[in-house]
Automatic annotation (TrEMBL):
Keywords: Membrane, Transmembrane, Transmembrane helix
Gene that produces this protein: eccB
Renumbered residue ranges of the record's region Disordered: 465-502
Domain of life: Bacteria
Organism: Streptomyces kasugaensis
Name the record gives this protein: Type VII secretion protein EccB
């Protein structure tokens, strides 16, 4: 008896023979009549899909030219040549550098790269921009607040002699230990004046009145430093004996003898350091160890206060000192001097002395340190049209490409309001306004505050002014010298004469 499956198969076989007979005129044909059609349709579908995928990939690799660059105020770069343009009013105007383009377009977006063919039929205008402005700008994330350093380096001159140079590290200071408060480094400038580098300052040693020998630095070998290094180190008070009014005049009787104004006295208390005093017209004035040693070695003390004899301090009792103390507020030694002469540090082999300036809030931290020579390197300062040299100009400037600094100078401990952009070339550019900073995409970036004497060492480029950037490129003045350079030159003359610069 036939099963249901046998019946279905028999029915299917009969229907297939009928269909084949009607379509192919042969009920016993081996291939079904629609097999070629199905194979052709499947093959065509696969080829179509492959073509679509190929066109998609080609479109992603080589997209068609966009017309987005035709928006007014767009910064454009021609793909084939790298030439930059600003589009506006249906005209392409070449810009002389990238910074000028950013100032004109207002930082509305990134530079668009467009093929030469798309720009071929667009009219060209006259070039615009600021000659000498930077052609590369750090982004906001690349603005650094790291420490700077100014190092007293040296090089071999053409005649074989060694000459002093200065190397400035822009936001690239080495992390070496600073000199302690009881350490100092004697240094000699190009004018022959000797200084004591101590606690981030330079103290001029009054060699005319014996300060070198009085403080124990007579046999020290000072490091020779350049004028740019000295200009960067803040000037402290002179290490000089204080002036004594009426030196040599008759004074009161002390320790059983008649004394003269200008003589020195000590009080010795067991278990405590000796106390030092100077006899003035109005009584005894307390002295630090440094002040006492400076007066003791001053030739005027022996000549006038001791009648030409060797100056020697007389020991007094505490009661006698209290009875002859001068009123408070009288003339005394200058503030800012070390209480005791710091120890002269010998320059370590393979190192150079450096001033490290660390931005921190309103007042930068300035310390003296010795840095390995390999960390005090740089390139010659940039020399090109539109850029003026620093004052005094360092021989080498070390800066990190791609990074920069947004800096505000600090004269006399207060901000001047001027902002500078220091680029990876070690050149500083004044920003004409807050709008200029915004157009360069630095809106909201907090500037670091640095001493004006430090920033003055860097070359100065033209002011980055949006209004100037939109004008023809051949109509702009050269960069203006740093306004503080004249004052720095006057201060430098004071240093050469042996005075304390203001």
């Amino acid at each position: 008896m036939q099963s249901r499956r046998d019946q279905v198969q028999a029915y299917t076989f009969v229907v297939g023979r009928l269909t084949t007979g009607m379509l192919a005129a042969d009920p016993d044909a081996l291939d079904p009549p629609m097999s070629r059609t199905r194979r052709g349709a499947t093959t065509g579908l696969i080829i179509g899909v492959l073509l679509c995928v190929g066109f998609l990939i080609f479109g992603m690799i080589s997209p068609g030219e966009s017309t987005a660059w035709r928006k007014p105020g767009t910064l454009i770069m021609e793909k084939e040549t790298g030439a930059r343009y600003v589009f506006g009013g249906g005209v392409l105007r070449p810009v002389v550098n990238y910074a000028s383009g950013k100032l004109v377009t207002g930082g509305q977006g990134e530079m668009l790269s467009v093929g030469r063919a798309s720009l071929a039929d667009v009219p060209r205008g006259a070039p615009i921009g600021i000659p000498g402005a930077p052609d590369s700008l750090p982004d906001a994330a690349g603005l650094s607040d790291h420490a700077w350093q100014v190092c007293a380096t040296s090089r071999t001159a053409a005649d074989g002699s060694t000459e002093s140079t200065t190397t400035v590290g822009v936001a690239a200071a080495a992390t070496t230990p600073a000199l302690r408060s009881d350490q100092a480094l004697p240094a000699t400038g190009p004018d022959g004046v000797t200084y004591l580098l101590w606690q981030g300052k330079r103290l001029r040693l009054d060699s005319a009145h014996g300060a070198l020998q009085s403080l124990g630095y007579g046999t020290a070998d000072p490091v020779r430093v350049g004028s740019a290094f000295l200009a960067a180190v803040p000037a402290g008070p002179d290490l000089a004996p204080q002036e004594v009014e009426g030196r040599g005049e008759t004074g009161p009787q002390l320790a059983g003898e008649k004394r003269r104004v200008g003589q020195l006295f000590d009080v010795r208390t067991p278990g405590s350091p000796d106390q030092h005093y100077l006899l003035g017209r109005d009584g005894l004035h307390p002295l630090t160890v440094t002040g006492a040693q400076l007066l003791h070695g001053d030739p005027r003390t022996a000549k006038d206060a001791y009648g030409g004899k060797e100056a020697a301090a007389t020991v007094l009792g505490p009661d006698e000192v209290r009875a002859h103390l001068a009123p408070k507020g009288g003339a005394g030694p200058a503030a800012g001097l070390p209480a005791a002469p710091p120890k002269a540090v010998t320059r370590q082999a393979g190192t150079v002395p450096c001033l490290r300036v660390t931005p921190q809030g309103g007042t930068p931290d300035q310390q003296l340190t010795q840095v390995p020579v390999r960390y005090a390197v740089g390139q010659p300062a940039a020399e090109r049209d539109g850029v003026t040299a620093g004052c005094p100009a360092p021989e080498l400037i070390g800066a990190r490409p791609g990074f920069g600094v947004l800096a505000e100078p600090l004269p006399s401990g207060a901000g001047s309001g001027t902002l500078y952009l220091v680029t990876g070339e070690g050149v500083k550019y004044p920003l004409a306004s807050a709008d200029a900073a915004k157009r360069l995409s630095y809106d909201g970036v907090k500037p670091v505050r640095l001493p004006s004497a430090l920033l003055r060492l860097l070359p100065t480029g033209p002011a980055l002014d949006p209004a100037r950037a939109a004008r023809p490129a051949d109509a702009g003045p050269a960069a203006k010298p740093d306004p503080g350079c004249a004052n720095a030159a006057a201060a430098g003359k004071g240093v050469q004469k042996g005075g304390t610069p203001g």
